[in-house]
TrEMBL record:
Native species: Candidatus Kinetoplastidibacterium crithidiae TCC036E
Protein family membership: Belongs to the bacterial ribosomal protein bL21 family.
Function: This protein binds to 23S rRNA in the presence of protein L20.
The protein's name: Large ribosomal subunit protein bL21
Subunit-structure text: Part of the 50S ribosomal subunit. Contacts protein L20.
Length: 104
């Protein structure tokens, strides 16, 4: 059984027991969250595609950690103009473990 969920503007293919890093969710470590934007659900060779989401389908997950990814360095230059710009960015994430995929 697997599902495709949408969170943080991105889509993830998940299964029960899987650990994934998603865009940061404002919740405490150890707290259980419910994701209700399930776009596709597959169980026993039966595929249900939502329009846009599957009605009544939810995913229960637990937050394991909050953190930041590695720094991305951004460097812009224009030749012969003496223009250089240095910038960096660290994206925040929440690491979750999928506990259960609930159908309607």
């Amino acid at each position: 059984m697997y599902a495709v969920i949408k969170t943080g503007g991105k889509q993830y293919r998940i299964t029960t027991g899987q650990k994934i890093k998603i865009e940061q969710i404002p919740a405490d470590i150890g707290q259980e969250i419910v994701i209700d934007q399930v776009l596709l659900l597959e169980s026993d060779e039966k595929v249900t595609i939502g329009t846009p989401t599957v009605l009544g389908a939810t995913v229960k997950a637990t937050i394991l950690a909050q953190g930041k990814h590695d720094k991305i360095k951004i460097f812009k230059i224009r030749r012969r103009k003496h223009y250089q710009k240095h910038q960096g960015h660290r994206q925040k994430y929440s690491e979750i473990i999928i506990k259960e995929i609930c159908t309607n």
